[in-house]
Amino acid sequence: MLVRKRTISPRAALVLFVVLAAFVLALAVWWIIFMARLVDEKVDMAAELGADDAYLEEIHRQEVRRQTMLGMEGVFFLILVLVGAWLIYRSLVRTEELKFHQQNFLMAVTHELKTPLASMKIYLDSMRSDKIPVEKKAEIIPRMQADVSRLEKLVENILDAGRFERSGYHLKIQRVDFSRLVGKALDELAAVPAKVPVMIERDLPEQYVISADPSALKRAVDAVFENSLRYNDKEKIELAVTLRRLEGTCRLDVRDNGVGLDRKEAAQVFNRFYRAGQEISRRRPGSGLGLFLAREIIRAHGGDITAHSDGPGKGATFSITLKSENGDEKNPAG
Amino acid sequence: MKRILLVEDDPNIAAGVVMNLDAEGYEVLHLDDGALVMEQVARGNFDLVLMDIMLPGVDGLTLCKKIRSTGSTVPILFVTARDRDDEKVEGLIAGGDDYIVKPFNMAELLARIQGIFRRLAWLAVDEQVGDVYEFDGRHIDFKTFTAEGPGGRFDLSRRECMVFKYLVERRGEVVSRDQLLDGVWGYHAFPTNRTIDNFILKLRKIFEDDPRSPKYLETIRSVGYRFKID
User: Fold this and answer.
1) Which of A138, A180, A153 is nearest to A331 (CA)?
2) CB burial class (10 A; 0-12, 13-18, 19+) of residue A153?
């Protein structure tokens, strides 16, 4: 059975909001006209009954005062209704957006979980097959190893994302050479065979010691690098990695020549489940958890991570800012 | 040698499938990007397309619709992680011939592929019915996939031809929906055997004087259908 759940699209919600707002405004305008007429009618009626001018003026004044009061109250309620409708509209749109990203996430995770499983299943079947020549079978083991690590990483990410939700991240803080850690991550990156050449420009101080959880920090840095490589369609990928000391902090900038971000994406890219675009035409692997976890890790260290881009197609810069020990003579200035 | 086009973005799965199809004696071309598929289908002369749905570039469903819109009847077998019933129906409505969910057994994939080729061979063979079947001034051509009746002249899909041929081969007999599914799709393909009804409706529109009170394509309540000519 084909069953589709009924939902309100953001567009329908906007139409509903505009119609409601227009209706409320029309009602208010009509109410004002109605009240103004009421004053005139009352004065006319008094005049017909033979009231003198001074009395008529008094009635007019009193009525105008009372109706001004009513009018003010009316305007207040009108604003209340409009603000309420606006809030409902906004929350509807946000719920829809969240739902979209959650569905996308579910599809992404399904794909990410099933793909290495499917691959391993094929290779296990192939190992047993008499038709596959022995030399072909030799290719199987490294491929299965790659599948296992991929699966392991995804499961770790999902479990960690859940853990963050419940209790935050427990860091094992120690003295870490941040510069060496970044260098190591880049070395590993360079060692992985890639479809297109990757040019990495490093500007790292010889040594930069901070207090951090090395394995967590490495994960965050890896997630940023991975993202920069993944969201890149160029024939040659360029990465510029800079680590600098600023006042009381240090900043790692990762600039790429990738697909870039628009302003909305730059704000959302660290959200849990967020993945650019529609999942069905998935351009790139991933679950939408990597950058979310990176941000959680960096924030648990008291730092922050941001994304900046001049726009789609113009590359992006991801910046990780962490507290740095100022008085540490081991760290170079600048 | 049968030629198979494999559209799969995961390099490991692709390598595994290619390894096995190769060993079975198929000639395989692998593409990892949906954007390149149309060009290959147009000039590739493939006997089968094995396609993932979630693909970089263009998704598999859109590709399948595009392939069908060019008039190509190349069989398409979806290989995908999407396993909900409505997702399967979506794939088959888009023009897919069969559907296998990841992770799958290689033996099952090979059996499905053979099943598709077997059914194609059945449609092409004219032992009982012939290339063109005529009755009461109506006719259907199983080679060109065209039909003419009181409803006018129609182009049919391969599936519609297969459904009709299956019924004609068993004229006078009651054929259950399950039998039809098994014979035409391979039983597992559709999550509900009611989907068959849509095909019958289309055939009635072509061949019946009054599709609402059918003379040739009878519904046998709670069983299936019967093709009947006096």
Assistant:
1) A180
2) middle
CATH architecture of residue range(s) B132-227: Orthogonal Bundle (1.10)
The model carries a pTM of: 0.65
The predicted complex's ipTM stands at 0.71
Nearest to B14 by CA among A147, A233, A14, A236: A147
Rounded to whole angstroms, the Cα distance separating A22 from A254 reads: 48
SS3 B139: strand
pLDDT digits (tens, 9 = 90+) for A32-47: 888 878 878 888 888 8
User: Which member of B54, B103, B106 has the closest CB to residue A126?
Assistant: B106
Instruction: Report the alpha-carbon distance of residue A273 to residue A268 in Å, rounded.
Output: 10
Check: CB of residue B17 under 8 Å from CB of residue B63.
no
**Tokens at B185, concatenated:** 């799709």
Element (H, E) at A203: strand A198-203
Per CATH, the architecture of B3-124 is what?
A: 3-Layer(aba) Sandwich (3.40)
| Stretch 120-139 of chain A: residues touching chain B, C-beta under 8 Å | 120-123, 125-126, 129, 131-133, 136, 139
Domain with CATH 3.40.50.2300 in chain B: 3-124
Nearest to B85 among A1, A115, A281 (CB): A1
